[in-house]
């Protein structure tokens, strides 16, 4: 029991803070996740396009509804997305869970150039393991320690 608490405490220290989203952002993320889930199920591109058109029509039919109805529809949409989640979703190869993830991670710049004399074309930004730019204000910053959850195939 003590070991569980220690692991939970260690994981809590490296978790990224959750981002507060507006209802419109939540709907956009739900739509994008629905399309990604659809991509895991539909192998043929024609089938994917047909089903994506139906999905877009469902989202467009509820555009402009009241905030209470939007909250209810958002909850129903998340539940439906959970029900249709693929058991082994498609994963981009360089993302966590992909076959290329951290295969050849770049060396830190201070190791490559110990004197601090960086070339002109050296990258000016730090990248997260999911190849997004590190920005502390977005809550996704790999400066320091990052918890990569391979079961969910994401970075927390």
**Main sheet: which strands, in order across?**
1-2
Strand and helix order: HHHHHEE
Largest sheet: 2 strands, antiparallel
- Assembly type of the chains comes to single chain
Roughly what percent helix? 40-55%
Approximately what portion of the residues adopt beta-strand conformation? under 5%
What is the molecular shape?
globular
Describe it.
This protein has 156 residues and is an all-alpha fold. The protein has helices at residues 2-14, 23-41, 45-61, 67-83, 109-112; strands at 148-149, 154-155. A two-stranded antiparallel sheet has the order 1-2. The radius of gyration is 20 Å and the shape is globular.
Describe, in short, the structure shown.
Keywords: Acetylation, Electron transport, Membrane, Mitochondrion, Mitochondrion inner membrane, Respiratory chain, Transport. With 156 residues, the chain is mainly alpha-helical. It has helices spanning 2-14, 23-41, 45-61, 67-83, 109-112, and strands spanning 148-149, 154-155.
Features:
single chain; 156 residues; mainly alpha; two-stranded antiparallel sheet; 2 strands; globular; membrane
Helices and strands in order:
Layout: H1 2-14, H2 23-41, H3 45-61, H4 67-83, H5 109-112, E1 148-149, E2 154-155
Antiparallel strand pairs: 1-2
Subcellular location: Mitochondrion inner membrane
Organism: Trieres chinensis
Membrane topology: Peripheral membrane protein
